[in-house]
Amino acid sequence: MSAMLEVKDLEVAYGKIKAVKGISFDVNEGEVVSLIGTNGAGKTTTLRTISGLLRPTSGSIRFKGKDITTVEAHDIVQLGLAHSPEGRRIFPRLTVEENLYLGAFARKDKGIDADLEAAYELFPILRERRAQPAGTFSGGEQQMLAMGRAMMSRPQLLMLDEPSMGLSPIMMKRIMTTVTTLQQQGTTILLVEQNAQAALKRATKGYVLEVGSIVLSGTGAELLSSDDVRKAYLGED
Amino acid sequence: MSRRILPDSVRATHGPKAPWLALAGGILFLLSGLLSWSYDDRILGDLSIRFYPAGIQLYAMLFGVIGVILAVLLLRRPPWLSPARGLRILGTTGIVFVVWIIASVAYQSGGLINANEGGWVALVGAVLLTLAGHLSPEVDIDVRRWPRLSSTLEIVIIVVLMAILLFTVAYTLDIQDGVIFASFLIALIGLAGGLLGTGFGGYLGFIGANNRRPLLLAAFLVAFLFPFTQDGSDANMSIATQVLIFATTALGLNIVVGLAGLLDLGYIAFLGTGAYVAAMLSSSGFATIGWKPPFVVVMLIGAATAATFGLIIGSPTLRVSGDYLAIVTLGFGEIFRLAMFNLDGNNGPDLTNGPNGIPAIPDLELLGFDFGEVHTVAGIPLGRFSNYYFVLLLLLMFVMLVFTRLNNSRIGRGWVAIREDERAAEAMGVNTFGLKLLAFSVGAFLAGLAGTIKAHQDTSVSPDQYVFLESAFLLSAVVLGGMGTVVGVLVGATILKLLPEKLREVNDYRLLVFGLLLVVMMRFRPEGLVPSKRRQLEFHEEDQELSELLQAEHLQAEHLDPEQLEPEHLQGAK
Ligand SMILES: Nc1ncnc2c1ncn2[C@@H]1O[C@H](COP(=O)(O)OP(=O)(O)O)[C@@H](O)[C@H]1O
Ligand SMILES: [Mg+2]
To answer: Is A84 in the pocket of ligand 1 (CB under 6 A)?
Structure first.
């Protein structure tokens, strides 16, 4: 059986600057795969390319066996691949509920209201504040909204770009617990993080990205105990 | 959002005097109507006679009547009304009104000395009313708590209001003198604002919102009946058709600008495309194409041609950032004008007769109905412009329908997302390019449609009708009225088209006045006169009250009382 997401020899450039230099990795169904790396390593670029917002210069991306390298972003969402972008990018002047409904924009089926309920179950605070303009939210609440919104497209694969960025330790824990919950509910997750500890603890598999190349890979536990990772990402020596 | 310009201590000590100040102000205004305003009896419809009020003096007395009513209300202090707000609007507008008249008298009769006592008495009255408004306590009004009327009564109210509106419009358009016309408009703002500002306005809005369909129907009935108030005269109807074409086109532009958030600086070219297509296919002796299809076909060809142009310039530009679109559309507008100017047979094919354009376009004839003739309905003659007025009204209704249907659809939600954050929208699966292109070409299509009728109504087309300034005016109508709303654009378009027609005196300074108006608007009300709630929030993000209002509306839509849900942020903010 092939992996749910297969990225092969992916190269992405901004003009002459190569941001991603031929990386390959797989995400299997049911996994939480973490992609870690410092600022500027090319993590966001990778995710944006997978979801069709950027075009690679070479390499291929397959999702559920289908080549999506040149598929348009809005069609990729319809295939069941959701992307919660870096910095959350919620719609600040729309209410929470309007934000959530926009997450389901690509869908035309009847199950949207049921999924709205599911999102509210996941984050009860969203229900409480459903009528509030989302821009008035705190960072953690915005992150919950961003995740809930991404889930509204009922994805099989959810890509999260630095969900813990700028959050308090408590809020971070809340978000990471939710990642596990979503995994248990059957969503496959590709998690991009600078925070290696939190990301690898829950990961079935991890990749370390450095200036556009994958330098290490292994199970979450392997990477967490690897000396290189401990030195570079956990500040130990 | 309170507008307290007086310190609290002054308000506390002198507040109780406010009703009496208001009463005095109202009485002075009433009195001023009986006095002479001008030494010269040849200007402004003769304001020189005492104890025989006419025209402007009557308007002044109306200020007095409303002032006295508000003063009495202030004395009785009903807890559900806010006479203070009404008084502030009435008073401030009153000052503008009186100063405008005194200045006009002085200007027209050669000196301030010719302004007689009436104006000065009224000025004191206006100041007293304003002062009273600022001294009186604020009452928080929530019209949703006012008693609900029976639905029949609500509809009766709507009908009566619409009848008043029809009468007022007819009256206003009949004022020939520009200064008196402006005075009446100012008075109208003050009088209506004074009455409605107390809370009645909000209540009427509430009733209107509860009866959208009857309201819409009544509004169209008024618009439909308007030609019947004109006794067959074409003077006002000619202006009215101009306003209608302008409003229809501006509403089409509002789909592009207000809904999809795209800046189009050459929109007039799409109107021109429709007009030129209609002219070329018309049976004018100067038409350049031999084929004469029926007008319905011409309309479709004109609109389709415009939409095709829209697709051609939209496809390459809409993929890149918004700034390019503004520049490309600006260029397209100029290219269109120059092409029409030059396609005269000397350079390229003879399609447009160059600078001379295509004159002598005959009147429309649909189903045997000749638009050039006077028809008599129920004993009332309806002239040529009335005929066009009805067709244009239908077209406006059609564009309104397209606008609201799109706005309330999935497409409309996609546009909202694009306006908010285009890249996030893309990640959510919104086909941003497709939706922008749709808005752009629908806008072009509708303008082209309007253009085909415009060609016949104007009886000629020429390149100088489709200059950049016209695009700028259209855009201003949208911005001035309110981006993304139907009513806003109708108001904006009416103001921008009607005022220059009526205020011939200031026509030379038209652009200056227009520029000033825009600057003032951008400073004090950037969201436009009738904005959508969401737009308002875009310009006043820190406005807590507004964001609460949005929440309340959202919850109301769920049939929930806002009180049931007491999120702590609402408490904390107060
Ligand atoms: N829009 C852009 N234009 C040019 N260079 C970019 C752009 N976005 C990112 N880069 C560059 O690409 C590299 C990878 O960036 P990014 O993918 O954002 O890294 P990460 O998400 O891992 O922090 C960086 O060197 C960054 O400066
Ligand atoms: Mg990043």
So the answer is: no
